[in-house]
UniProtKB/TrEMBL annotation:
This is Squalene cyclase N-terminal domain-containing protein. Keywords: Isomerase, Repeat. It comes from Triticum aestivum (Wheat). GO terms for biological process: triterpenoid biosynthetic process. Belongs to the terpene cyclase/mutase family. GO terms for molecular function: oxidosqualene cyclase activity. PANTHER family: TERPENE CYCLASE/MUTASE FAMILY MEMBER, TERPENE CYCLASE_MUTASE FAMILY MEMBER. One of its GO terms (cellular component) is lipid droplet.
């Protein structure tokens, strides 16, 4: 059974400024929990899969169960002293734990019974008593989810492209089999299958309709995890081909597929790294962008400048022929560059944007790749790596979000596959799984 480890860490490749307070990592332990608890978890899994099209968001039931039991087992002794007037230390340790667990379940049941949910449609007038009852119920449930170190752990779920980009980073750096155990792979596949829409595609987020971005990235993830043709994969591939193939994936998707070798860099709009060398006072300097924007496009610029492509293993070559309606070698990348599936198009580009991207792609990028101007690119890439290393070191290799964490990890591997930076990145992958 999966066990939630809170405020734990250590070893030469894990760093923390607060002794890992607030860190929550899942670890599989086949002997964790009682047989009844493991059976209950299996039941919860089956129930979620059965109702996945009607109740798609995660409920964090396993985390809630474990956090509650852990907290109560730590604090229950004091409550028992106050309410029952005897000392638990006179009992054997195992008896103490059993008693605390029983007491915890009774208290949880008591909270649910004594504090019923009150809805405005069910009452004629809102009184002070109903407001206080609702507040007590909310505070009781919220405090029950607090971990023993004081923080509130939660699942980083809902966004359906987070898991794929982490898998892509592990694949590219050759650490996929090292980091992911068999149970990790099984759970990741279960998660992706559970959030596949009825039409066969995957959304950008769990509650959304199918998109080319979500469908391509999750399909490729399953294939990289050695999933072969099954009904879900066949339906997913059919959705992709029916809606324009991977050539119609939006810009972020084009970049990620280019990194793993499933799309050509020529089919991307230019993300010139030289932009980071312009004076900072200019409004076009990326350092003036919103923090998430600058810290994500910073490593993207590095990857674009390098035109990096991951290892072309047989699986990647096979996926190339699965994602497109025509042979991979016949795809018109010039046309694909500005192609976006209507399911992914939130706002059409303006004429000004079209002019800017065309100028960057047709004129600026070719010039920057010619000698002696290409010396400037080398300088820009070195400058970007300094920024990337600074970001990694200041966040202890967690990053501002999993997106730039995965991108930075790939950049560190490109810069030096044997670097300490890569070794410091790897343990922090578990923080996002």
């Amino acid at each position: 059974m999966w066990r939630l480890k809170v405020s734990e860490g250590g070893g030469p490749w894990l760093r923390s400024v607060n002794n890992f307070l607030g860190r929550a990592v899942w670890e599989f332990d086949p002997d964790h929990g009682t047989p009844e608890e493991r059976a209950e978890v299996d039941t919860l899994r089956r129930d979620f899969t059965r109702s996945r099209f009607h109740k798609r968001e995660s409920q964090d039931l396993l985390m809630r169960m474990q956090v509650l039991i852990y907290c109560v087992s730590r604090l229950c002794k004091l409550v028992v002293y106050a309410n029952l007037g005897f000392k638990l230390q006179h009992l054997p340790y195992n008896s103490q734990i059993i008693y605390c667990m029983q007491y915890a379940k009774e208290k949880l049941l008591q909270v649910q019974v004594d504090l019923p949910a009150i809805k405005l449609v069910d009452i004629a007038q809102v009184t002070e008593e109903t407001v206080l009852t609702s507040l007590r119920r909310a505070l009781s449930q919220h405090s029950a989810l607090q971990a023993h170190d004081g923080h509130w752990p939660g699942d980083y779920s809902g966004i359906m492209f987070i898991m794929p980009i982490l898998i892509f980073a592990l694949h590219v750096t050759g650490t996929l089999n090292t980091v992911l155990s068999r149970e990790h792979r099984r759970e990741i596949c279960r998660y992706i299958y559970n959030h596949q829409n009825e039409d066969g595609g995957w959304g950008t987020q769990v509650l959304g309709p199918s998109t080319m971005f979500g469908s391509c990235l999750n399909y490729v993830t399953l294939r990289l995890l050695d999933e072969v043709d099954n009904e879900a994969l066949i339906k997913g591939r059919a959705w992709i081909l029916l809606h324009g193939s991977a050539a119609a994936i939006p810009q972020w998707g084009k970049i990620w597929l280019s990194v793993v070798g499933l799309y050509e860099w020529f089919g991307n709009n230019s993300i010139i790294p030289e932009l980071w060398l312009v004076p900072h006072f200019l409004p076009i300097h990326p350092g003036r962008f919103w923090c998430f924007c600058q810290l994500i496009y910073m490593p993207m610029s590095y990857l674009y400048g390098k035109k990096f492509v991951g290892p072309l293993i047989p699986t990647i070559l096979a996926i190339r022929e699965e994602l497109y309606s025509i042979p991979y070698g016949e795809v018109d990348w010039n046309k694909a560059r500005d192609t976006c599936a209507k399911e992914d198009l939130r706002y059409p580009r303006s004429l000004l944007q079209d002019v800017i991207w065309t100028c960057l792609t047709k004129f600026v990028e070719p010039v920057l790749n010619c000698w002696p101007v290409n010396k400037l690119r080398d300088k820009a890439l070195k400058n970007l790596m300094k920024h990337i290393h600074y970001e990694d070191e200041s966040t202890k290799y967690i990053g501002i979000c999993p997106i730039n964490k995965a991108l930075n990890m790939i950049c560190c591997w490109i810069d030096d596959p044997n670097s300490d930076a890569l070794k410091l990145h790897i343990p922090r992958i578990y923080d996002y799984l």
